[in-house]
Design brief:
The chain is an alpha+beta fold. The longest helix is centred in the last third of the chain and has 22 residues, at 167-188. Helix 1 (4-20) packs across helix 6, helix 2 (77-86) packs across helix 3 (137-147) and helix 4 (167-188) packs across helix 6 (210-227). It has helices spanning 4-20, 77-86, 137-147, 167-188, 198-205, 210-227; strands at 29-34, 39-42, 59-62, 92-96, 127-128, 152-155, 159-164. It starts with a helix and ends in a 14-residue tail after the last helix. 42% of the residues are buried. The model has no long low-confidence stretch (mean pLDDT 95). It is built from 6 helices and 7 strands; from the N terminus they run αβββαββαββααα. The protein has a single domain (4-226), classed as 3-Layer(aba) Sandwich (L-fuculose-1-phosphate Aldolase). Helices cover 36% and strands 13% of the residues. The chain has a 7-stranded mixed sheet with strand order 3-2-1-4-7-6-5, with helices on both faces.
Length: 241
């Protein structure tokens, strides 16, 4: 049974973790979906201090984007409702503007994994080609067509969308995507960047337990966030130092 109180708490925790990591600030939003009631909880939008969010700040909405309680959803709520409504595995969604991964929405360069951890995205990270905010249900459906069954998408000149079966999976995947993007850019300074082939990626994928890795990452970052002073620009730790 879906526990909405627990979901609110975890969603607020994820917001604070990603704020600590410098991946969620003035802009960006997260959501978790209750398929039993066809209701989602979403973080408040532009202007909210994500580093200070608590469970009570999470905004309940229907799949039509209409609030079902206090607060207002962010203007790009169709990102979340489109994915939650169509994909059974998209119970958690993050829309972020991570500094390194976002560069792949600007440069004419396809994202391909360069580390073993990055093979999480061996199926590719497609690009939503329109330079626009996803503020309508029609645009949400267009995003759904682009991402298909994949784990993430890039939004042109904008940011990223990551989906997962739960919030721990979204946290881990978001951190891996940003880390792999950063390592790609760093390696380019040394020479030609060698990406991992699909065969190499699938071989490693078969060896790992995503659920276990995601939960360990959640436990670690939640513990670090609990000790954080919640001041901007402080507290960030590397996933793979």
């Amino acid at each position: 049974m879906f526990n909405e109180d627990e979901a609110r708490e975890k969603l607020a925790t994820l917001a604070r973790i990603l704020a600590m990591q410098g991946m969620l600030g003035l802009f960006g939003h997260l959501s978790i979906y209750n398929p039993e009631k066809k209701r989602l909880f979403i973080t408040p939008g532009m202007g909210s201090d994500k580093a200070q969010l608590q469970a009570a700040d999470m905004v309940p909405c229907g799949l039509d984007g209409k609030p079902q309680g206090r607060g207002r959803p962010p203007v790009e709520w169709p990102i979340h409702t489109a994915l939650h409504g169509a994909r059974a595995d998209a119970l958690a969604v993050a829309h972020l503007h991570p500094p390194h991964a976002t560069l792949f929405t600007i440069a004419q360069r396809e994202f391909r994994p360069v580390t073993l951890q990055g093979t999480l995205f061996s199926a590719g990270v497609p690009l939503y080609p329109e330079a626009q905010l996803i503020t309508t249900q029609e645009r949400g459906r267009s995003l759904l067509e682009v991402i298909g069954v994949k784990r993430a998408a890039l939004l042109r000149a904008h940011g990223t969308v990551v989906v997962g079966k739960n919030l721990a999976e979204v946290l881990y995947a978001s951190l891996v995507l940003e880390d792999d993007a950063k390592k790609t850019l760093q390696a380019a300074a040394l020479g030609t960047v060698e990406t991992l082939s699909l065969d190499q990626s699938q071989a490693f994928d078969a060896e790992i337990d995503l659920e276990r890795r995601a939960q360990r990452a959640w436990d670690y970052f939640a513990a670090v966030e609990a000790r954080w002073d919640h001041q901007p620009g402080t507290g960030r730790v590397e996933l793979f130092p």
